[in-house]
Amino acid sequence: MKSLLTNETVEGGCACGAFRFRATGQPIRIGMCHCMTCRRVHGAPFGAYAIFPRDAVEMSGRVQTWQSSEAGRRHFCPVCGSVAYMEFVTHGEIDLPLGAFDDTGRFEPQYELWSKHREPWLPHVRPEYEEERTR
Ligand SMILES: [Zn+2]
Ligand SMILES: [Zn+2]
């Protein structure tokens, strides 16, 4: 992985290009999630996100939103259906999907959540939590 300067920006967006984002600085944390909602919205065995402070992320383009839990909001591109980002309205953070960044290899997950729904063929290489992260 490249080392990042604190004011370096990373960009990404949806598959069709209608939604774009730019994040400045380092993510707060980087995680994988095996919960049933992440599995389904990504149509993939897990979701993976780089989590930035709300203020560090600029976005352009329209998204549609649905409420996935009491505080959880899932945003997606209404044109192509790609996951745009997710957030917990109580946290002041934006979860940007790792697969949406323009460059590969920028961020490596540090932990995995909801391992009770984890595919058994995945290798064990980082801390796993049965459900949510315990601080
Ligand atoms: Zn799109
Ligand atoms: Zn999840």
Short description:
By secondary structure, this protein is mainly beta. Helices cover 5% and strands 36% of the residues.
Structure description:
The protein is mostly beta strands. The chain has a single domain, classed as Metal Binding Protein, Guanine Nucleotide Exchange Factor, Chain A. The chain contains 1 helix and 10 strands; from the N terminus they run E-E-E-H-E-E-E-E-E-E-E. The protein has one helix at residues 36-42, and strands at residues 9-13, 20-24, 29-33, 47-53, 57-60, 64-67, 72-76, 83-88, 93-97, 111-113. The strands form 3 sheets. Strands 9-4-3-10 form a 4-stranded mixed sheet. A 3-stranded antiparallel sheet has the order 1-2-5, with no helix packed on it. Strands 6-7-8 form a 3-stranded antiparallel sheet, with no helix packed on it. A hairpin with a 6-residue loop joins strand 7 and strand 8. The radius of gyration is 14 Å and the shape is globular. The protein binds zinc ion (2 copies). One zinc ion (ZN) binds at residues 33, 35, 37-38, 47, 114.
